[in-house]
Amino acid sequence: MVEETFVAPNPREAFEIAKEKYGHFSKLKLLKAVQVKDEAGKLVSRITVSVSSKDFFESIGLDEEEELVGEIVELKTQIENMKNLVSPAPASQKYIENIKNIMFEKGLGKAWIDKILKGISEDTVLEDEQLLLSYILDEIDDKLSVKAEDMSQSKMMMLIGSTGVGKTTTVAKLAARYALLLDRPLRVALVNLDTFRVGAYEQLEHYAVQMQIEHIKVERVEEFETVLFELEGYDVILIDTAGISPYDTGKLIKTIEFLQSTGKHNIETSLVVSATAKRDDIVDIYEHFSFLDIDSAILTKFDETKKIGELFGFLIENDIPVSYISSGQSVPDDLELASKEKLMDRFMSELNV
Ligand SMILES: Nc1nc2c(ncn2[C@@H]2O[C@H](COP(=O)(O)OP(=O)(O)O)[C@@H](O)[C@H]2O)c(=O)[nH]1
Ligand SMILES: [Mg+2]
Asked: Which of 8, 169, 246, 326 could form a disulfide with 14 if both were Cys (CB 3.0 to 4.6 A apart)?
């Protein structure tokens, strides 16, 4: 038997080519069908079939006398196959280890990398380091998601996260963006649940006064109803919260339960995470807030670090879309919509490959 490979944009077309060449499909035995990238980086289908050496040589126009050559070729194929069975190509093992290490060092979880690699273990992508790397980057690009800004309906946005990550600053930036910078200015109100910490209310009040935006302090869950009633008619209600402490969490849970019980409020919860955070800390924070449905992540302090791999790994492994990116302290300038290009560019510039 001789093995032959056919490549086409999809498996069906690849079969068609094979069928055309051999006249009848019953002469072929399908050995493998994989998706690979061609030189231009486009996904193509590659099928490998085996045919009798007689059919093979007929198909390339050799007559029977030349069949001896065919037998030699067949023997060679068998020897190659046996070699592959004994040990996979050592070069590909080296590439795989190399890429695994690069990705792991950059912050992606081992289990996640293994899962991705497992999906392609039968593939010749593994035989080429560049192809393998681009395959993995493609996979990351695929898993990474961005949440588009949609202000078409009125909503409440609550920012949660640890103390000092930039929640209050981001609330001020978002308020300025929605109230002053959009094509259609929105009616924005601020609600402050961070009432325990000294100076927390004043910090946001400073911006609220500047922008002439309503800013209401809520100290007890029971007050929320009155506050929401007062804020009826606003397009966006931004809710600033305290960082994490058992006290605040209890209060936050009650507040959320209350808001949900009212049924009529569309609340979006954004986890604010600093790009400088270490993976273990991010996981802790995420677990701490796991009682909430987190709609998106807002990434802050992008200006303070070049290394975002750990945060990146966390986001793709937990399927959390990114909504905004903050790259400085200035209100409202240092806030932008998240984009996959920007995030991938930053991650790839870290890879140095
Ligand atoms: N470099 C930098 N600093 C930021 C950014 N966002 C917020 N900050 C600063 O981080 C500190 C804490 O911010 P704050 O909004 O009070 O955090 P909160 O405790 O989560 O409300 C302040 O000094 C902010 O100016 C950012 O994107 N980059
Ligand atoms: Mg704050």
From this structure: 8
